[in-house]
Amino acid sequence: MTTTPSGGPPFYDVVTTQRACRTFLPDPIPDDVIERILTAATHAPSAENSQPWRFVVVRDEAKRQAIADLATKVWTGGARQHSAPKLAENILHDVDQSMTGGAMAAAPVIVIVCGDPANTFPSAMESSIWPCVQNLLLAAGAEGLGASLTTMATLIPDKLRALLELPDDITPYAAVPLGRPARALGRPRRRPLTEVVHHDQWDHGDKSP
Amino acid sequence: MTTTPSGGPPFYDVVTTQRACRTFLPDPIPDDVIERILTAATHAPSAENSQPWRFVVVRDEAKRQAIADLATKVWTGGARQHSAPKLAENILHDVDQSMTGGAMAAAPVIVIVCGDPANTFPSAMESSIWPCVQNLLLAAGAEGLGASLTTMATLIPDKLRALLELPDDITPYAAVPLGRPARALGRPRRRPLTEVVHHDQWDHGDKSP
């Protein structure tokens, strides 16, 4: 019987310290922690409350390694070349370690978040799945765990389907490694609101007549 | 100068009480509250930290009414017929009120969340925008405000672009009304974890040989 979690650290502290964690300690995660995190994930909104999310909680070491290998394949097969010029050097180094250095497989748990199209319509799938993934990531932070939103392994969905015996109609969207962070993460860097917020209509700035 | 918000109510209390609010009191929302909510939104993760979200904070009454009218047009033009059989009667009644009864325009603020494709790649847009929208919705709850994730008005993006003078390459994804809830919302209803969680591989249950 799942109980709905309550309490936890202050909301804004969790939200404003969220960072992608890519290096993990091997300490196992207790079942009740995983349960609270997944319960938070299922409290995301979804179109028509269809709750199309499905989770595969992967603890098995060989399967975690196989998932990490899929991510490596996508990363070294083209994604790195695409992303490298746009990433800060330290981030690129971390992603390299994560994708090819075994860091992702070192996380004691990888959660594969999937979408089941049975009760929803295709155009509403992503607006339901990603809020669920975000709740999962935030809840991991609330529990003092590191996590990151990765999609590499899902970009060759048929291999992931075969590995996890997913039905043909189930689409994997994210592979979220979870574990104790191997090192402290700094604060996230963000553009100031003034660069992204407009009032009542788009401010075209210098481009206005 | 934006300060990063801290504190707030306990994380799990915010997450597990999130509900779609569709009826609002007209009380204005202070600027600092909007600023905290939007700062939370911008702390979502995004592919390559591209931060592709852009916001139009609509307080202008005529514009809010025009946005609500776009939603009405989509709802009565086909969406209601599609959704009605799948919605609980009380929810359908609320959505009807929201979409055609002026309830959406009654919210003192509607935030239009848009995506700017300049610094990201198309396949990563939704995995960045929806976590941002989810942070926005959660932060609204942390502030004691009601909010809901609506997309109806964005389904005729050219009319919304014209109304808000959005550049052609900016895509609106969500229209989030914000305001004091006109009535208390009950707890969300969710399937138990046992129906959506699998361990190490998909459990095919009765379908297994």
What does this structure look like?
Two copies of one chain form a homodimer. With 209 residues, chain A is an alpha+beta fold. Chain A has seven helices and five strands. In chain A, 39% of the residues lie in helices and 13% in strands. In chain A, strands 1-2-4-3 form a four-stranded antiparallel β-sheet, with helices on both faces. Chain A has one domain: NADH Oxidase, CATH 3.40.109.10. The first copy, chain A, has helices at residues 11-16, 31-41, 61-83, 89-100, 103-106, 125-142, 157-164; strands at 53-58, 109-115, 146-147, 171-179, 197-199. At the A-B interface, α1, α2, β1, α3 and α6 of A face α1, α2, β1, α3 and α6 of B. β5 of chain A pairs parallel with β1 (53-58) of chain B.
Question: What is the CATH architecture assignment of chain A?
Answer: 3-Layer(aba) Sandwich
Structural class of chain A: alpha+beta
How would you state the average pLDDT of chain A, rounded? 93
What string, H for helix and E for strand, traces the elements of chain A in order? HHEHHHEHEHEE
Total number of strands of chain A: 5
CATH class of chain A: Alpha Beta
Tell me the CATH topology of chain A: NADH Oxidase
Quaternary structure classification: homodimer
CATH superfamily of chain A: NADH Oxidase
Query: How many domains comprise the coordinates of chain A?
Result: 1
Low-confidence stretches of chain A: none
- Number of separate helices of chain A: 7
Largest interface: A-B, 84 and 84 residues
Rg over CA atoms of chain A? 18 Å
β-strand percent of chain A reads: 5-15%
Determine the fraction of residues in helical runs of chain A and give it as a percent range: 25-40%
Q: How would a crystallographer describe the biggest sheet of chain A?
A: 4 strands, antiparallel
Distance between the termini of chain A: 63 Å
* Spatial order of strands in the largest sheet of chain A: 1-2-4-3
- Overall, the morphology of chain A is globular
